[in-house]
Amino acid sequence: MLGPVILAASRSDKMRRFVSAAPGTKQVVSRFIAGETVDQVVPIIVDAAGKGLEVTLDVVGEDITTVEQSHAARDAYLELIERLKDLGLGTKAEMSVKLSMFGQALEGGHELALANVRPVVEAAAAIGTTVTLDAEDHTTLDSMFAIHDELRKDFPQTGCVIQAYLFRTEADARRLAANGSRVRIVKGAYKEPAEVAYQDKAETDKAYVRILRTLMEGDGYPMIGSHDPRLISIAQELARRAGRKLDEYEFQMLYGIRSDEHLRLAAEGHRMRVYTAYGTDWYGYFMRRLAEKPANLLFFGRSILTKG
Fold this sequence. Notes:
By secondary structure, the protein is an alpha/beta fold. 53% of the residues lie in helices and 13% in strands.
């Protein structure tokens, strides 16, 4: 299977240099990455709002190695929030953050990440929006959930992400659904060992449905992160059975993928949020998108051959 191989390559400096230098890379990256700067991403936010869509913004670049870089990540989000404030777009755009980018993997990383992310959450709340903590590999999750619990004491709207392919997630979902959390459920896009995660797509899909049912029947706010037509249809049926109104859950999809479906769901009255990544350190995010769908890798290969 290509997925695990690509995910392994996402951590390779040699592959990073090769992919970055490939002639067709820029064309493919632009499909998934909205731009490199705040100025480049602002028109995309405005355009989405005009189409009845909402966005969640991810400043890419989780592979940091210094405290100074973690502070720079914090400041990049604060700059973004200031621009959203100036444009009056706070209610149309939230933020997604990876705590590794805020220093979670460094010495004293749990406390550092919490100290860095708190002012971002505070600034987001001040303009009428919020922050969702992205899930990363399974070794980071206890820290992520602890930070999520701490932030929710003052900012209960703070969200988090759970990954259906992990065995632990059904228990996590029950806890989060019971305490009224905003929760994005995704299948999972990291290379995880068989000891902690399903390796079979069908088993992951079954777990996704079980977890989604728990979220829909709970007291929280489910955010369905999927492009899978079958899972989207199941989510709509589970929401109906749970008696949820259209504004009591939302769909989320990636920028550049199934854009027509974004508009269709919004036209039906669903809340539809587009996960929009931007920034210069795009490699890890880009490789995970290739791993999720073989067609993306074929598209990349054709682009290299065409431009080469």
